[in-house]
TrEMBL record:
UniProt-listed GO biological process terms: glucan catabolic process
Coiled-coil boundaries: none
Native organism: Halogranum salarium B-1
Pfam families tied to this protein: Fn3-like (PF14310), Glyco_hydro_3 (PF00933), Glyco_hydro_3_C (PF01915)
Fibronectin type III-like domain mapped to chain residues: 654-723
Keyword match Hydrolase: yes
Official protein name in the record: beta-glucosidase
Top-level taxonomic group: Archaea
Catalyzed reactions: Hydrolysis of terminal, non-reducing beta-D-glucosyl residues with release of beta-D-glucose
């Protein structure tokens, strides 16, 4: 539809709508179970779509829905759309949002990608675009049209249970990769909207506890969090979701400063803002800044929240009452409804609200889509340690022993925000992957050895390891979301994984030590959502591979890497601490004085493995770091070049990372932070010049009031130990 025609339709609808119909368009609901809300069936949601005309519904595509079958969810989507389009007075179509943290993973037979932390290890924007495009096609094929994502959160405390949903600790990395993923959604040949989350700051909660307060200075909030949203806002997106937590005492869902002054007026966002699911209710029940649910709704509307994602009839009734009492002007409602209707028009829902189930098998989980997921998993593999070049193992070894709780557990391998039972996941475990890549005459033996936090058969595992040529121990974390739930899947909240424990549980540690004591050459694989503090492993295990949550086909990627079919190329997107007591551990920390002398202070940054670390089976040399100019204007940029040579004997990919720092500034700035990155593929013996277009704004200074300026002065860029200095000119 032509834009002018769409605008005319929206305005005509607004003129015709009753206040109650408008209010209903700003309320969402769900099918299934949701904490603090009643369980709802498809029949009950269908009735809400008819009256009062709920504008949003999530009948599948989230953890609380019992509906995960692909053809089943298509039938539900069409049924609810039919109620909206054919059985309401105005025929306004329904918008169906779904959780797509790492693919359309709450529906069976779809493509489940590595989680974002693993994707960030690839440092590959083009790959993230492919991930976004694939996800959009699969989402649209089931009748959903809005992706809850990408995640722009910056993880600054690895105790946090949502670390794996993020692209790590660098605002630049988080922002660039989230924007690439969103770009891929928009470049798909289907109409799917994106909703970035969780604005403005979520990833450094007190105690590492999910949704706990983020109390930070305005300069830190702008430098460390808001910056990660800027690239995706510049690309253009349809929705923003606020964070659950409070920011310096003000809940995000009730903050006109963040949602209106900053998001809309300063950053120019013109889409719609939808509550994180229970975010409005939390103003009343948890933050206790509103004495009633009615007041919570009023506050959220005044702040700039357009849609209450779980509001249903209660939200509808309260909005009507608030307008009729004069507490909310109807023009505020009109503006929010206009944004919602414009989105539905832009997505083509008025013309084509239904979806055809006949072609489902040609879209969901196709060979091409799964190949993209496998490619993503391959590129994410991060080799932390490889003493004496133990890896890659010989695929023709006589006997390979595999053990550990995550060696043959697909649900743990895909991680949270996806179907949670092994029989619902279509994929390849690490055990299966190893069996598929070794030689025909190689025997692969397996003993679980341990569960996530309980011993199983350590003695049997030791006996099998003793007779094997090599051993692969696959440890880490299981499926979880948010604060390490849900209990029926993960077990009681006092069991690992939990925010107070970044070390391996005793059962896994004991298994690892027992296998290493056999002196069988051993590789350790971590399948985990967070960096785990494992100093014993670093000191005693010769080969360690970080696989993150590598997705449904990630087991094959792990196996290919261990046995040399794939050359590892991932780089850590987050620092690995030595212990929980070493936190915070991040590469872009602020400097501090050392009043009793530097030699009397332990290092400020001394991780087990640093941000950006990752080994390869070949060797790369960096030469001739250069700048196209010695001086740059504050609004200008400079080209930084570096020659990268593959001096090893096999082809490999290298993620080239450029770090920067300021010599002096008017306020304290990070000692070092990532300012640019590119990925390059090189054959053995090949050299390439990698160039970065580096803006002077990469060295912005953030003042205590949150303002940002590019100050004159000397800055340093560094790449693999080589440095160069650049002068930012005075704009006066």
């Amino acid at each position: 539809m032509h834009a002018d025609d769409a605008d005319s339709r929206v305005e005509a609808l607004l003129d015709e709508m009753t206040l109650r119909e408008k209010a209903a368009q700003l309320a969402g609901t769900y099918v299934g179970e949701m904490a603090g809300h009643p369980t709802q069936t498809v029949d009950e949601v269908e009735a809400l779509v008819r009256d009062p005309g709920i504008g949003f519904a999530t009948p599948f595509g989230f953890g609380g829905s019992p509906h995960t079958g692909s053809k089943e969810v298509v039938d539900i989507a069409n049924r609810l759309q039919r109620a909206a389009v054919e059985e309401t007075r105005l025929g306004i179509p329904l918008l169906i949002p779904v959780d797509t943290i790492h693919g359309h993973a709450y529906v069976q037979n779809t493509t489940v990608f590595p989680h974002n932390l693993g994707l960030a290890a690839t440092r590959n924007r083009a790959l993230l675009e492919r991930v976004g495009t694939t996800t959009a096609r699969e989402v649209a094929a089931t009748g959903a049209r809005l992706s809850y994502g990408p995640t722009c959160d910056v993880a600054r405390d690895p105790r946090w249970g949502r670390t794996f949903e993020t692209f790590g600790e660098s605002p630049l990395l988080c922002g660039e990769l989230a924007a690439a993923k969103s770009r891929g959604v928009h470049d798909a040949d289907v109409d799917v909207a994106t909703m970035a989350k969780h604005f403005p700051a979520y990833g450094e909660p007190e105690r590492g506890e999910d949704t706990a307060p983020v109390d930070r200075s305005l300069s830190s909030l702008r430098r460390d969090f808001v910056r990660a949203f800027e690239p995706i806002l510049e690309e253009g997106l349809e929705g923003i979701m606020p964070s659950y937590n409070s920011i310096n005492g003000e809940p995000s869902h009730g903050s006109s400063y963040w949602l209106t002054d900053v998001l809309r007026e300063e950053l120019g966002f013109d889409g719609y803002v939808a509550s994180d699911w229970n975010g409005v209710r939390m103003l009343h029940e948890d933050h206790r800044v509103a004495e009633s649910m009615r007041e919570a709704i009023r506050q959220s509307m005044a702040a700039g929240v357009d849609v209450h994602s779980l509001g249903s009839v209660d939200h509808t009734d309260h909005v009507v009452g608030l307008v009729e009492s004069g507490e909310v002007d109807e023009s505020v409602v009109d503006e929010s409804v206009r944004r919602v209707l414009e989105l539905k028009a832009d997505l083509g829902l008025f013309e084509d609200p239904y979806v055809d189930a006949e072609g489902l098998d040609d879209v969901l989980g196709t060979d091409a889509h799964r190949e993209t997921a496998l490619d993503a998993a391959r590129q994410s593999m991060t080799l932390l340690q490889n003493d004496d070049d133990l890896l890659p193992f010989d695929p023709d070894a006589d006997e390979v022993f595999v053990t550990g709780p995550n060696a043959d557990a697909l649900s743990n391998q895909v991680g949270g925000w996806s179907v949670s039972k092994d029989d619902e996941v279509t994929g390849i475990s690490v055990r299966d992957g190893i069996e598929s890549v070794v030689g025909d005459d190689t025997t692969v033996t397996y003993e679980q050895g341990a569960g996530i936090d309980e011993p199983v058969d350590v003695e049997a595992a030791v006996a099998a390891a003793e007779s094997a040529d090599v051993a692969v121990v696959v440890l880490g974390e299981n499926w979880y979301i948010h604060e390490f739930g849900v209990q029926e899947i993960t077990g009681p909240t006092d069991r690992f994984p939990k925010r107070t424990q970044l070390t391996l549980p005793d059962a896994q540690q004991d298994l690892l030590e027992a296998i290493v004591e056999t002196e069988t050459p051993t590789a350790l694989v971590f399948i985990t959502g967070r960096p785990l503090a494992t100093p014993w492993a670093e000191a005693n295990v010769p080969a360690i591979l970080q696989a993150y949550y590598p997705g449904a086909d990630g087991g094959r990627a792990v196996a290919e890497t261990l046995f040399g079919y794939t050359n590892p190329s991932g780089k850590l997107p987050i620092s690995v601490p030595r212990s929980t007591g070493h936190l915070p551990t991040r590469h872009n920390h602020l400097p501090n004085p050392t009043p009793i002398g530097r030699e009397e202070h332990e290092p400020s940054y001394d991780p087990l493995w640093a941000f950006g670390h990752g080994l390869s089976y070949t060797d790369f040399e960096y030469r001739d770091l250069s700048l196209s100019a010695e001086t740059v204007d504050p609004d200008g940029s400079v080209t930084v070049g570096v020659d990268v040579a593959n001096v090893g004997d096999r082809a490999g990919d290298e993620a080239v990372q450029l770090f920067g720092s300021r010599e002096y500034s008017s306020t304290v700035t990070p000692v070092r932070e990532l300012v640019a990155f590119e990925r390059v593929s090189l054959d053995a013996g090949e050299t390439a010049t990698v160039e970065f277009d580096l803006p002077a704004s990469a060295f912005s200074v953030f003042h205590p009031d949150g303002s940002r300026v590019v100050e004159a002065g000397t800055v340093t860029v560094e790449c693999e130990g080589s440095t160069a200095s650049l002068t930012i000119a005075d704009d006066g």
